[in-house]
What does this fold into?
Amino acid sequence: MRLIDSHCHLDFECFDQDRDEVLQQARSAGVCHLVIPGVRAATWSRLLELCRRHSGLFPALGLHPYFIEEHSPEQLEVLRQMLRAESDILLAVGEIGVDARKPSLEVQWELFRAQLDLAQEFSKPVIIHSVKTHDEVCAELRRRRIGKGVIHAFSGSRQQAENFVDSGLWLGIGGVITHQRARKTREAIRHIPLDKLVLESDAPDMAMAGRPGLRNSPQWLPEVLDSLAELREESPQALARQLWRNACDLFECEFPQPALDEKAAAGSLV
It folds into this structure.
């Protein structure tokens, strides 16, 4: 099975010592491509260089609400310039959003709206971080008619999931659904149209069940697929094919299908 990790922070410093090994392990597990969302202006250039250096890594840039105290209005103009200069390789504006656990909510909303403006200006989808703000974020997206984007690491009710999907958004599904205790979110994902879901690891965060306290890794993305297959009572193979198509549709990118190795190709002829 071939998978796309639609949200992985492989540029974070915690991967500096073994990034190449992590990437190799992910590819061995069938994770062919990774979307790497930017979170802080200070790391954008490094992220772009990482994606240029490794095939199969695709960048997005944004100002994450978690780092609200580091952001400044001037960085929005820098983001605009980078979107203009790197339009061919940037898949999205993100990671952006609103997080009610963090301070300066009013400033967060101003920054979020400004980045939505940039996404519309450059016709890019958005990667959205929404924590305890689902209803308000959904209303803002509907008001602006934002129809291309993903609610990253969705964790919420079936009604909230349906509201996002009805607005044209995709839902990012990750380690949350591997935990049996996440009943509300698991039930929501069971009923959402399959063509509106994408897989994500959110590595190094959002640990899978059975690995509490460990650094998450894109190599474990197949565990999310297995949990999704169990929830929806569908085959992982069929799900994987549709989820690949979903990521292509969301990001308006035909991610290249890797060639089968000789052994696999020979087996397919038997």
In short: Residues 3-268 form a domain with the TIM Barrel fold (CATH 3.20.20.140). Strands lie at 3-5, 31-37, 57-60, 93-99, 126-131, 149-151, 170-173, 197-199. DSSP finds ten helices and eight strands in the chain.
